[in-house]
Amino acid sequence: MKAFVHHLAYDFKTGIRDRSKLFMFYLFTMVFFALVGGMMASVNPGFKQLMLPAMVLFAFMCSALLNLPTFLVGARETGVFRSYRINGVPAASILSIPVLTIGVHMAVVAVIISVAGVRLYGGVAPQSIGGFILAGLLIYAVYAGIGTLIGVAAGNNTASTLIGQLIYIPSIILGGITVPLSILPSGMQKVALLLPATHCMKVFMAMGMPGSGGMPWISLAVLASSVVITFTLAALLFEWDARASAPSRKAWAALLAIVPFAVSAFVGA
Amino acid sequence: MSEGMVSVQGFRKCYGQTVAVKDISFTVQKGEIFALLGPNGSGKTTTLESLEGIRRPDAGSLRIAGIDPTHQSRRLRNLIGVQLQTSALPAAMTVEEAMLFFCSYHGVPVRNDLIERLGLGQKRGTQYGKLSVGLQRRLALAIAIAHDPAVVFLDEPTAGLDVQSRADLHALARELREKGATVILATHDMAEAEKLADSVAILLRGEIAAMGSPRQITAAGDRRTRISVSTEAGRLLEEKMAFPSAIPQGRTDGYAVYLSDNPGKSVGAILTWLDQEGDPLIDLRVERPSLEERFLEITSDQKQGALQ
């Protein structure tokens, strides 16, 4: 336990010391929030309802989809995991500690966005702070799970960035972050159900924001299943050593993480 | 004979169709420095990494203090210390943080004494990524021995180190042996193995080509002694003289070189002749074949065997 705490403290400290991490966690998300939040709120007053969940979700995606896998792949490929292995650092610590420390940074970012969004841009405040926080935790867990799985399964950092972008870019366009899902054509709405962001926005809105209707139970179930599946697969597929060639055959098992989203798109909810 | 601190019996490891290590066996006793010697690709690192529990053997039995490294890797971690050939620490981790980090995972107090002992005292706050290769290897070694392991594995420990660092590392390896630790060394540096190791196994293409103490291995080869003589007038080089029991081998760097199976008799005859000729002696070297020469002899025998 003492070792785990030291590891956690070390990882958090380097998150602050490492300029590229600071940039991704704070500067990039804040600049995006400052520009897009302000612009969208003035162009589309309806965005004020979405602003807080959308901007927090955006920050979570940046850190967990784009940063976390890069860290994991880089550490594996440079031999850091080998050093950890021979000195008895458990795989569970390697996988869980970055998730926890990035989670702390994201909690700070979420608070800044929530306060600044309401004060500076007139964003609608959460109806239920507790519901908003719970939804935020679940959504962070969803993206942390996906990010961890990408980091474990991707053969190199080019692949991890590509996979991350493959989820990230469509999420910005179709996931309900910049425009409400309801204004998308019905075909696109079905496609959007393949994206975690779509379900995250539904749950975030229902649990935290006023006037958002009933709980989207299917989306909640999809997200909960995704957390379980991604972390389980990441633990099963975890490898200590750098890969000499393409990802092993078992890395393709990571595609099982799509199943809850595919089922949801199939049933159309 | 006892089972030994490290026991390898019929160990085999394959990568796909390639057999990297072919059914090798050896035993290392407690408090011994054992060197695995061989060229790149001979199977040294594979053997070491299998003993460290990183790789799974395809056949045979591996034991460290009776523990199976493949199936009891948790029990193994505090028993062994490993300096890997290829590994790294996070670039942003400082020397001090690295020591704290790994000591906490081994459940031992922080070993600041080792930071000092290995010349890292001035670099405590320096990040791993900003250390020179030599200092990175020193830090890896400090971490490997921080928990006082019973068996220390060093894979090419002096690669990339300067002369002083090599001497320091050799001194440290001897110190570990004096404290009762068993040191297993993989290297292709013959001089290092000859200087440091109590026993040696020469691996060639995954097989043990020779094993024993460095003296035993060299004695098993060409038994002749090399005599190198340099004189002021260089008469030995001009005359191409033959002496009792000494076979001329030509010249090397201004020295006349002979191989002799009776060096006392040969040296006496050479000195007498030089005295008669009035050619003063500058330097006289009498050398037994080194481990490196024996290694080259074994490699050459293997190549010829393969050609036949």
Characteristics:
heterodimer, A: 269 residues, mainly alpha, 75% helix, B: 308 residues, alpha/beta, four-stranded antiparallel β-sheet, 28% strand
Detailed description of the structure:
The complex is a heterodimer of chains A (269) and B (308). Chain A is mostly helical and 269 residues long. Chain A is built from eleven helices and no strands. In chain A, helix 3 (47-77) packs across helix 9 (196-208) and helix 6 (129-153) runs parallel beside helix 10 (217-237). The longest helix of chain A is centred in the first third of the chain and has 31 residues, at 47-77. The model of chain A has no long low-confidence stretch (mean pLDDT 90). With 308 residues, chain B is an alpha/beta fold. Chain B has helices at residues 44-51, 73-77, 95-106, 112-117, 133-145, 163-178, 190-196, 214-219, 235-239, 263-277, 291-307, and strands spanning 6-15, 18-28, 33-37, 59-64, 80-83, 151-155, 182-187, 199-204, 207-212, 225-231, 246-252, 255-260, 281-287. In chain B, the strands form three sheets. Chain B has a six-stranded mixed sheet, with helices on both faces. The longest helix of chain B is centred in the C-terminal third of the chain and has 17 residues, at 291-307. Classes of the chains: A mainly alpha (269), B alpha/beta (308).
Concise structural overview:
Chain A is an all-alpha fold. Chain A is built from eleven helices and no strands.
Ordered list of secondary-structure elements with their pairings:
The complex is a heterodimer of chains A (269) and B (308).
Chain A: H1 2-17, H2 19-43, H3 47-77, H4 80-86, H5 91-121, H6 129-153, H7 157-174, H8 186-192, H9 196-208, H10 217-237, H11 259-267
Helix pairs in contact in A: 1-5, 2-3, 2-5, 3-5, 3-6, 3-7, 3-9, 5-6, 6-7, 6-9, 6-10, 9-10, 10-11
Chain B: E1 6-15, E2 18-28, E3 33-37, H1 44-51, E4 59-64, H2 73-77, E5 80-83, H3 95-106, H4 112-117, H5 133-145, E6 151-155, H6 163-178, E7 182-187, H7 190-196, E8 199-204, E9 207-212, H8 214-219, E10 225-231, H9 235-239, E11 246-252, E12 255-260, H10 263-277, E13 281-287, H11 291-307
Parallel strand pairs in B: 3-7, 3-8, 5-6, 6-7
Antiparallel strand pairs in B: 1-2, 1-4, 8-9, 10-12, 10-13, 11-12
